[in-house]
Amino acid sequence: MPDLAFAAFDLDGTLVDERGVPLPGTIEGLARLRDRGLALLLVTGRSTVLFEALGLPEHLLELFGPRLLLDNGNVEYDRATARAAYRRALPREVVPALLAAGFTELVAELDHRYVATSRRASTWFAMAHRLPRSSIEVDPQLGGRAQVGSVLVLDRVPLPEGLLGGAVEAIPFAGTAAKLLRPAGTCKTAAVTALLAEQAGEADLKRVIAFGDGRNDRCLLASAAVGVAVADSHADAAARATMRLSGPIGDFLAAFHPETLVRRDRPDVVEDCAH
């Protein structure tokens, strides 16, 4: 079996705490992986705004390549220029369709910035993400933007059947009654696979070890040659992983020896991996 050549990491709960502070031993552990010849990839569920709001230390980011994957892989972030580009976005007609259907409490990510239809929606979203309310523009028509990354629907009414079509999926938002609309098939696995094909000519994830803790990591952990669920991972992530850590990730990285790992013969074909 080919040696591991890449290590893909989730961010929140895997490498940093809720304030963006690196967990103990992660900086040293990541540097050790890189010194052993592994290229490090970062793939997080955070949008561009929420990623930049963390203010991650440069000595952490510089351990990764220049291209970071945000928004579960739908956004590529150039670390050198701090510029973001959508790899996948929602159809532009989604916002007009929602407004025409009578939805009034929306927060949309438009051109990598958040815009709300009302002050109430702006305040709710800002509090949920610990953002200054002033950082979220209020525009009842959500107009004048070219690309739509996602839309959060706060209205407590069902989405009309057929409104979104097959290009959009709706998922529960962080255990609330709100619904997050995003491109259908959003998946960290697909994004990492595409990036490695572009950067290194890799056809699959047979040389990847992946680390994560959330439900949105479960597909990547199942598809990589080695999937590592960190301690306190979501049950779905742990169930799909090759192994689950019982202690800090820093301790695991400090003792990392790829020759001792049990690897899959091939990445699994995993369905329904995006929610």
Quick description:
With 275 residues, this protein is α/β, with parallel strands linked by helices. The chain contains 9 helices and 14 strands.
**How many helix segments?**
9
Structural class: alpha/beta
Which overall shape is indicated by the principal axes computed on the Cα atoms? Answer: elongated
DSSP strand (E) fraction? 15-25%
Q: Helical residue percent?
A: 25-40%
Number of strands: 14
What is the makeup of the main sheet?
Answer: 6 strands, mixed
Order of strands in the sheet with most strands: 8-7-6-9-11-10
pLDDT < 50 stretches: none
**Termini distance?**
31 Å
What is the alpha-carbon Rg in Å? 19 Å
Series of H and E elements: EHEHHEEEHEEHEEEEHEHEHEH
Mean pLDDT: 91
Give an account of the 3D structure.
This protein has 275 residues and is α/β, with parallel strands linked by helices. It has nine helices and 14 strands. The strands form three sheets. Strands 8-7-6-9-11-10 form a six-stranded mixed sheet, covered by helices on one side.
